[in-house]
UniProtKB/TrEMBL annotation:
Source organism (scientific name): Shimia marina
Protein name in UniProt: DNA polymerase I
Residue span(s) of domain 3'-5' exonuclease: 325-521
Broad class of enzyme this protein falls into: transferase
Pfam families documented for this protein: 5_3_exonuc, 5_3_exonuc_N, DNA_pol_A, DNA_pol_A_exo1
Length: 932
DNA sequence: AAATTCACG
DNA sequence: GACGTACGTGAATTTC
């Protein structure tokens, strides 16, 4: 068929596909020889998806992928600086360029590039030919340089956003129609391609001028008429540069091609060619997908490749089948499973209980799996519903082995050092077993494997991991126990219903383990997992089980005092407002402040509600008495509801202590988080809040001690960024903020004021977070320009910090992650996004190695701590990021401080020798307020 | 369930 | 040239 009316040509911007694929994916290598193939893999995925998405009635009749030819183009002859500030392609991308051409041909799609021309010119020429032949053309690209081609049957399609760009879309972007796009571009220039344009004129101004004068030529001819003197001068003086810019952005629609549109006709796929290529690249998942679409059998990979193929396991092909899950009802079946476990050497285990609180949880059943697709459930505590009779709630369901018999049979296996027990979130299950005096060891944990491998990429809950890596959606727990008020506990579920859910969890855990464990080496995080994750599990479990004693009476008295004060404040507030309203409602408060009292400081937020945060109320406090009272009320309300009231409900009836739960995967940086209750945010900054710490007490005859790292993150910054001045200051034990102030502001140390020191402190902390002038200005409540000056001077004085930031950003952009000193990888998938998301990712990437290294250090200390204090009457109870809290008999306070301090100060060694000393401060007392 | 606010390092 | 603007968390409360 010759190309003509009714025909539809698709032109794919190949280079855009390659770069998008490269940056969107983590570095991926071919397993058999380590060849980098991340971009090729992503490129093939995009082509496959393109083909699947374009099979319908509007399918193209002709298609080609157009590439840039390597080397210079004719534009470099026009202007030697054209695209001169483009960084060279990353080393691991270069070998992939020819492979993407091979991939295109393997998909049986025409593949074109021409020496001395850019892909955009070939696309332009073909689009014009298609238009001349009365056919349609769709350009699959979002490159704004191609927008000049739109119109008259030519459209663009942004494949990522699946958004078509027509004439209207171009006008939206450039403010002019496609025929004037080059004029606007010539004026505005392009920093990415290094097109100079007219200095000081951007797209907005350019569109305004072009629309007023009709065309670039008319504008330049009549430049004398322009009113703004600066703009007039620019256009007159830079005429040559602007005309050159137009030549650079103008695409060549009239290239001589050695092929015609007819050569681009869509061809049927050649399964052998395509699958052969994908097999050569060892892209397992894509082979299956492509074979499925083609309706042919997927070829098997060569054996070594199969064994190692990334993100694919033997388990992937084994279906999930609830019929293969076994209900263990008798002793013979249980013994059979135990024998199978000993034969295999490892087993995936999951426990079902009647509570999410491990301190009180009782076993409902145990699941085991040693082979993907096969699992069993051993119910031991399922009870009949309470509906039958008064005692029904305690009566056991049928066909369950006695709990003690099951535990006696399993205990030797669970404690056998030769048998590896695999869990998803091992800490929970180990604590449950600990309730039955069973010490499970050794243990692997798929949640922690995922965290070591994928921190920052996604969460590590089992449901999410299963969907992502096994392509399988587990049975939602809601279908068994319901949700909200009518929720029941798992031990009340009928065993027949519980079986498929529970056994599946062990099955999934085993499959995830088979997938993740070999990846530790390939991603080089084995040491992270083995030294920072795995050994921490028993340490945290022990701390949680000890808990910390909290005095209910103290909290209760404080609650009452807060309630009284709040009532008084509330009356005053209503008085001042002239009406009653809910002080706790930001919405109602906003209306009182800004509508009724007409205080300055209008709306904010996307919901249209007034913002009434502490910053705003503090500013308003100078205008009116009410905001200050609200702030006082809020502080009390927070203290009462979150602390003095809520903490009481967390006191364990049996132990009289509060048992928090640490989430080891809680923060992407390696920090822990603490929940139910969160004991990492107990008030300390305000005098009234700090008194809540008086309720955290030591037992009679014991004391609480607290040891915290002094300015650990700044020390790490000094080491990582290699700032001599900072390192020396730390080595000499000087006041680091005063030192910074004197360096940055030029004030001698003996003339230092607290205000200047405070500013330096804010800058020191800001730097760790990637602060902007705007942010520092807001924090210090100083003019923005002044804040920017501070920051500039800071970087001038400590240029190494700027270098660290630039290097970190560059590393994140090429690798997709950043690293701590101990090799922990924190992924930064958004670093190559554009807009504000990239800014957030950039600041997070700067902060992560610092915060993460600090987290690694205290983890190392915690892991060594039990051994260091084993002969002392002391227990480690809490961790608050840079602080550890112990309970110790009065007689051993000094010895414990000495032992713990030594472990903490030496925690980096022998792996790392820091250039700065780590200093640990210590306190002691009958309660946490005194100890801190 | 989302948004807002505020407690901590 | 515009846009947003300091990192990492968890919990309580109000609003939709």
């Amino acid at each position: 068929m010759g190309f003509g009316k009714g025909c539809h040509l698709h032109l794919i911007d190949g280079s855009a596909f390659i770069f998008r694929a490269y940056h969107a994916l983590p570095p991926l290598t071919r397993k058999s020889d380590g060849l980098p193939i991340g971009a090729v893999s992503g490129f093939c995925n995009m082509l496959q998806r393109y083909i699947e998405d374009n099979a319908g009635p509007d399918a193209p009749t002709h298609v080609a992928v157009i590439f840039d030819h390597s080397g210079k183009s004719f534009r470099n002859d026009l202007y030697d600086q054209y695209k001169a500030n483009r960084p060279p392609a990353p080393e691991d991308l270069k070998p992939q360029f020819p492979l993407t051409r091979d991939a295109t041909r393997a998909f049986n799609i025409a593949c074109k590039e021409i020496e001395g021309f850019e892909a955009d010119d070939i696309i332009a020429t073909l689009a014009c030919q298609a238009r001349a032949a009365s056919g349609r053309c769709t350009i699959i690209s979002s490159d704004k340089d191609l927008m000049q081609l739109v119109g008259d049957g030519v459209e663009m399609l942004d494949a990522m956003k699946n958004k078509r760009i027509d004439r209207e879309g171009v006008i939206e972007k450039f403010g002019v129609g496609p025929e004037r796009v080059v004029d606007v571009q010539a004026l505005a220039g392009d920093s990415v391609d290094n097109v100079p344009g007219a200095p000081g004129i951007g797209i907005k101004t350019a569109a305004l001028l072009i629309n007023e004068y009709g065309s670039l030529e008319d504008l330049l001819d009549r430049a004398e008429e322009i009113k703004q003197p600066k703009r007039r001068q620019t256009l007159i003086e830079k005429r040559d540069q602007i005309e050159l810019s137009k030549q650079l952005v103008q695409l060549d629609c009239d290239m001589a091609l050695d092929f015609t549109l007819d050569d681009l006709e869509v061809q049927d796929a050649d399964p052998e060619k395509l699958l052969g290529f994908l097999a050569e690249m060892e892209l397992r998942t894509l082979i299956k997908r492509a074979a499925d679409k083609l309706g042919v059998e997927a070829p098997s990979l060569p054996e070594p490749a199969l064994a190692a193929a990334e993100d694919a396991s033997a388990a992937e092909d084994i279906p999930f089948d609830a019929a293969k899950y076994e209900w263990v009802k008798d002793r013979a079946a249980l013994d059979r499973w135990i024998a199978a476990i000993y034969k295999r050497g490892y087993v995936a285990v999951d426990t079902e209980t009647n509570s999410l609180d491990e301190m009180v949880a009782e076993l409902a059943g145990i699941c085991l799996s040693v082979e993907p697709g096969e699992a069993c459930y051993i119910p031991v505590g399922h009870k009949k519903g309470a509906s039958d009779d008064l005692f029904g709630g305690e009566e056991l369901q049928e066909d369950q082995l006695p709990l003690t018999e099951v535990l006696d049979a399993l205990q030797p296996m669970l404690e056998d050092p030769a048998i590896l027990k695999i869990f998803q979130n091992a800490k929970y299950d180990c604590k449950v077993f600990a309730n039955y005096k069973i010490a499970v060891t050794p243990v692997d944990d798929t949640m922690l494997l995922s965290y070591a491998l994928h921190a920052g990429e996604h969460n590590h809950g089992m449901d999410a991991l299963s969907e992502r890596y096994l392509n399988h959606q587990p049975i939602p727990i809601k279908t068994l126990i319901g949700s909200g008020k009518s929720m029941i506990t798992f031990d009340k579920v009928a065993i027949a219903d519980a079986l498929p859910y529970a056994a599946e969890d062990a099955d999934i855990t085993l499959r995830l383990w088979q997938l993740f464990k070999p990846k530790l080496h390939r991603r080089q995080v084995s040491t992270v997992y083995e030294t920072l994750e795995r050994p921490l599990v028993p340490v945290l479990a022990q701390m949680e089980r000890y808990g910390i004693k909290v005095d209910r009476d103290t909290l209760s008295r404080m609650s009452n005092a807060f309630a009284q004060k709040m009532a008084g404040l509330e009356a005053e507030i209503h008085e001042l407002a002239g009406q009653e309203f809910n002080v706790g409602s930001p919405k109602q408060l906003g209306e009182i402040l800004f509508d009724k009292l007409e205080l300055p400081g209008g709306k904010k937020g996307k919901t249209g509600a007034y913002a009434t945060g502490v910053d705003i109320l503090e500013d308003l406090a100078t205008e009116h008495a009410l905001p200050g009272l609200v702030l006082d009320w809020r502080q009390l309300s927070k203290l009462k509801s979150t602390y003095t009231d809520a903490l009481q409900t967390h006191i364990n009836a049996e132990t009289g202590r509060v048992h928090t739960s640490y989430v080891q995967t809680g923060a992407n940086t390696g920090r822990l988080s603490s929940t139910d209750p969160n004991l990492q945010n107990i008030p300390v900054r305000s005098e009234e809040g700090r008194r809540i710490r008086e309720a955290f007490v030591a037992e009679e005859g014991k004391a609480l001690i607290s040891l915290d790292y002094s300015q650990v993150e700044l020390r790490i910054l000094a080491h990582i960024a290699d700032i001599d001045a900072l390192k020396e200051a730390f080595r000499d034990g000087r006041d680091i903020h005063a030192m910074t102030a004197s360096e940055v502001f030029g004030v001698p140390l003996d003339e230092m004021t607290s205000e200047i020191r405070r500013r330096a402190k804010a800058i020191n902390f800001g730097v760790i977070y990637g602060v902007s002038g705007f942010g520092l200005a807001r924090n210090l409540r100083i003019p923005r320009g002044e804040a920017q000056d501070f920051i500039n001077r800071y970087f001038e004085r400590f240029p190494g910090i700027r270098t660290y930031m630039d290097d970190t950003k560059e590393f994140a952009k090429t690798h997709g992650y950043v690293q701590t000193l101990f090799g922990r990888k924190i992924h930064t998938p958004e670093i190559n996004a554009k807009g504000p998301r990239a800014s957030f990712a950039y600041r997070a990437a700067i902060n992560a190695p610092i915060q993460g290294t600090a987290a690694d250090i205290i983890r190392r200390a915690m892991i060594r701590m039990p051994e260091a204090i084993k002969d002392l009457p002391a227990k480690m109870l809490l961790q608050v990021h840079d602080e550890l809290i112990f309970e110790v008999e009065d007689s051993a306070v000094d010895a414990t401080i000495a032992a713990a301090r030594e472990v903490m100060q030496g925690a980096t060694e022998p792996a790392i020798k820091l250039d700065v000393p780590l200093i640990v401060d210590a306190g002691r007392g009958a309660n946490w307020a005194e100890a801190h």
